[in-house]
Amino acid sequence: MQPFAYLHRDGADHIDVLTGDVVTAATLADIPLPPGRPGPATLALVPYRQISERGFACVDDGAPLQCLRVAEHRRVPVADLIAELPDQPVAATGGFDIADDEYGRIVADVLRDEIGAGEGANFVIHRVFTATLDGDPLTAARAAFRRLLTAEQGAYWTFLVHTGDRILVGATPERHVSVADGLTMMNPISGTHRHDEGRELLDFLTDPKEIDELYMVLDEELKMMAAVAEHGGQVVGPYLKEMAHLTHTEYLLAGRGHLDVREVLRATMFAPTVTGSPLENACRVIARHERRGRGYYAGVLALLGHDEQGRQTLDAPILIRTAEIRPDGTLRIPVGATLVRHSTPAGEVAETHAKAAGIMAALGLRPAAARPPRATGPATDDPRVRAALAARNDRLARFWLDQRRPGELAVDALTGRHAVIVDGEDTFTAMLAHQLRALGLVVTVVPWQDLRGDAATPAVTGRAAPQDRAGGLDRPDGSIAVPDADLVVVGPGPGDPGSATDPKMAALRALVDALLAARRPVLGVCLGHQILATTLGLAVHRRDEPYQGVARDVPLFGVTRRVGFYASFTAAATADTLDTRYGRVELARDHADGTVHAVRGPGFAGLQFHPESVLSADGVAVLADLLPAVLDGVPTRADLDPVLPA
């Protein structure tokens, strides 16, 4: 049978029917998108293994990047297509590839060994319901598509794609990324209320675990928007996403951009709601604990085309709540749970069952949802629900929620000066770059790997002469690259700052040593702060409980600030000042346990929290207050002599 696709978008009265031939592409850049008539040109099935294009870890299962080149596009009324689809039960036998007890053990391992060890804020680990269908696979898929159309609700896309050697059928709630009219949009969804779990919706909306899950994926997708939209993403919401078996919470992000849509796809692989945060290390954690490929789970369907003005368009939902069926009747339904510091093994096991319920019911593998119709309409008609949703934004950063005039936040002392941010494998740095630009700085972001010279174990020598710069970086003696800028920001990233074997930590320690020795202005953020703290002589230890996605009001040099933490390690001190060879250092700390939230000294400062996070309501104000003194506070030799050791 000729390859085809049925696509139904939420709220549409028709189904897009696409037919054409299928080709395989090696990379996203190879997805065919020739100029031509307005409308859809290519439907791409992007597998999870494509994440390797970004250099991230994955178990390569060989799933192909298949592209349906659209030769014909028709719009068929929903009722007409439903009438053509089979309505018959599907027979199959199967079960999860990982038993509940084993999946629970994996959850416990990730909570203890990854989140507890500072490897990230949240991770998604998947399991797969596998079965063998009796009868014709395409007939089963068409029947499942019919049931999804008639029984599911709230899906962003309901779809059936047949390429000839595989079938994907599902109802995904989540847009990953779209581009239309020059506007790029993303749609982070997280938090799961199971309709059969017995708790009230309002209890779900005020549950700290569910709230934190959404905030963390919001931060992670803001990182992606910061890379593909010129001024980052503006946050709209939150909203409810009500489906037949589940209700989720969601935000929308929007920003203007001009990238090729295939580059937008590449830069946003893949959603944190199906991977974790920070993304690069989440991919390592996934490979470590799953130890098998994901197929198309966590990838996207991507519909590429052109509008009436010839501009590129993109609509790419995430491939979740989806069944993959092979011609021999083999069925796979992958599902995952988002693991955060509040997670429990039993709760996450139950969440995977709930997420599989919709597509399993459509295939006849479990009873359909017995959800009574709501007499009073959607849940958001309830003023208590609206109030609970609105309250989630009360203490978030207005920087990401409000529109601003260009230059509105610029600080005279910072305007036009150059900052280099060193990325420690956490693209929070992209968000931080937008904040610094809003304050007037000219910003460049470089990966930590660019710090390393030719020597296997670099020796630190300080700042080189300008003629030694390569690619904007000083390379003294070819050992450690020191960015040549008015300000160097040593940024966040996962991992143990005290590791003696991690090359990233060695490079960052060498960089901070060189910057302080050369009296160069430096700001450390999160991991960068921890490296700075150890260089100044403070002890850094693992927290008893991870501070991943935590917002707190903290004392900060005489002012209380609302800031967001993503950390499993912290510095500690017993006094508010510290004399060092680089001058007297002030410490903003918690007097109850001594944990250090921030440090500042002549020409340097460190922040344990993330001023760029959506959780940091006062993040921009902290930077605006702190950075002018850092840039202008580099002391003379005479200033330093009294505190230099004999």
TrEMBL record:
Enzymatic reactions: chorismate + L-glutamine = anthranilate + pyruvate + L-glutamate + H(+)
Keywords: Glutamine amidotransferase, Lyase
An example Gene Ontology molecular-function term: anthranilate synthase activity
Source organism superkingdom: Bacteria
Chain ranges of the Chorismate-utilising enzyme C-terminal domain: 102-355
Coiled-coil features, chain-numbered ranges: none
A Pfam family the protein falls into: GATase
UniProt cross-references to InterPro entries, sorted A to Z: ADC_synthase, Anth_synth_I-like, Chorismate_C, Class_I_gatase-like, GATASE, TrpG/PapA_dom
SUPFAM superfamilies per the UniProt record, alphabetical: ADC synthase, Class I glutamine amidotransferase-like
PANTHER family: AMINOBENZOATE/ANTHRANILATE SYNTHASE, ANTHRANILATE SYNTHASE COMPONENT 1
Tagged with keyword Aminoacyl-tRNA synthetase: no
UniProt-listed Enzyme Commission number(s): 4.1.3.27
Gene Ontology biological process terms in this record: L-tryptophan biosynthetic process
Domain Glutamine amidotransferase intervals: 420-625
Enzyme class: lyase
Organism annotation: Krasilnikovia cinnamomea
Keyword Lyase: yes
Protein name, entry field: anthranilate synthase
